[in-house]
Write a structure and sequence with these properties.
441 residues; single chain; binds zinc ion; alpha/beta; six-stranded mixed beta sheet; 17% strand
């Protein structure tokens, strides 16, 4: 939770008339045809969200939805009716891809409902739609577990599947079950699926959907997909290609490809991906967003122009001036996310501060730290902080990375004495640092 007086975040958005969905005010729902009780539920929910914000309890995007759903349990279906809904799910990249799609599709000039701060369960989706009663389109990030139910409730036109890997260790066993549920839900649904063919679990999950656009955007984390999801045999890999030696399961033919710094569209034309957001993971997210935008008739050049201007996503990648030091904030919630963050670090000797907590949203178990290779941090100043700094310290010692334990990011700034610093934090540690820096959720 962050303070009510927090400074507003600056976002590069495609055009001002598309940001109504993300504005701070929540007008009462005026969608035509919404039953009286649903209108009341949306209005009361909106009021609760406003009250929550005024009380300094976060951005109010969840509490409003919770209150609305109490009054009208099928509120999400009612609010989604008559809109074109895009759902975005996967272990990593949901929030960024949601924002990139919103930017790209926003070039059509329509108002778009969205949940740009990652409130991605039912109440968050309700709030996003209630906030933008006039929006005919919605681009919504959805938690992996809730995707089947949210697909059913919203009647989404497009479902976007990014990747599937272990999140916190205490949820690792669930990803195969998740893939099974996705597969069943998508087999029944009448929607377009945009799916990453390079992730065997995702490919399998989308394998029975009627209408799939396959994108090849790579897979950063292999350790959850050594086995064929179809039959359990060992998967064989040859560069990006993969197939099962025992059953017909193989990488599907792809329409969109991320090739280095370029995107290749379905006609075979390559264009440079000129992004402000750093790293390969964001180039992957951008290609997915281009494929989604294409469903709505947005041309690649037009979409790329909009996507290329997004510079920060819910505070991630933001540069913050703090005590004379240029801090860059990177969020890493799970092993795949840490690999992505380590990939985009500024070169040594720029110091790095790592902050790890183990609260409920982070996962209580920090043994996932042992899944991440920290050796590439050798040879530069490394500072360690957060509630589980000792766990992190033990891990770094095992990887022979020199480090100093500090009480806070401010201590790290003071001790390093350098003009810039990278900060990688997991979920609640990131929120705490943002609050300390006086930034909104
Ligand atoms: Zn197989």
């Amino acid at each position: 939770m962050t303070g009510a007086g927090a400074a507003p975040e600056t976002y590069a958005r495609p055009r001002p008339d598309n940001i109504g969905a993300m504005s701070a005010s929540i007008p009462p729902s005026r969608r035509p045809g919404l039953p009286l009780r649903a209108r009341l539920a949306a209005t009361v929910g909106g009021a609760a969200g406003r009250a929550s914000r005024l009380a300094g309890r976060g951005d109010g995007s969840v509490i409003g939805g919770v209150v609305g759903l109490r009054l009208k349990p099928d509120l999400l279906s009612l609010l989604a009716r008559g809109r074109q809904v895009v759902l975005v799910t996967g272990t990593n990249g949901k929030t960024t891809t949601t924002q990139l799609i919103t930017a790209a599709v926003g070039t059509l000039g329509q108002q778009i409902a969205s949940n740009p701060f990652g409130a991605n369960m039912e109440a968050g989706l309700v709030s996003a739609l209630a906030r933008a009663p006039e929006a005919t389109m919605a681009v919504l990030e959805v938690d992996e577990k809730y995707m089947p139910a949210m697909l059913k409730a919203t009647g989404a036109r497009v479902v976007t599947l990014l990747n599937l890997s272990r999140d916190q260790m205490d949820r690792a066993a669930e990803i195969w079950l998740l893939a099974r549920r996705w597969r069943a839900a998508l087999a029944e649904a009448d929607c377009r699926v945009i799916a990453n063919a390079d992730d065997p679990l995702v490919a399998w999950a989308a394998g029975q959907a009627r209408n799939v656009t396959w994108v090849a955007v790579g897979q950063r984390w292999y350790d959850d997909s050594w086995c064929c999801p179809n039959c359990g045999s060992h998967l064989r890999r040859d560069d990006e290609d993969w197939h099962c030696g025992e059953c017909p399961n193989r990488r599907p033919p792809v329409s969109w490809v991320l090739a280095g710094d370029e995107v290749i569209d379905p006609t075979g034309r390559a264009r440079p991906l000129d992004l402000i957001l750093p790293g390969r993971a964001n180039r992957s997210n951008a290609v997915v967003a281009l494929a989604v935008a294409d469903v709505f008739g947005v041309g690649v050049t037009q979409a790329l122009n909009a996507i290329g201007q997004v510079r920060s996503v819910a505070g991630r990648y933001t540069h913050v001036e703090r005590r004379g030091c240029d801090l860059r904030l990177l969020l890493a919630k799970n092993p795949a996310g840490w690999l992505e963050a380590l990939d985009i670090l500024a070169p040594a000797p720029v110091p790095v501060t790592l902050a790890v907590n183990a609260q409920v949203p982070d996962g209580r178990d920090t043994s996932w730290l042992w899944d991440v290779d920290y050796r590439r941090l050798r040879g530069r100043p490394v500072f360690v902080t957060g509630e589980r700094q000792t766990d992190l310290a033990v891990r770094l010692e095992a990887d022979e990375v020199a480090f100093r334990v500090v009480g806070s990011v401010d201590d790290a700034i003071e001790q390093s004495g350098r003009p810039s610093m990278e900060v990688i934090a997991n979920y609640t540690a990131f929120q705490q640092i943002r609050a300390m820096l006086g930034r909104a959720a």
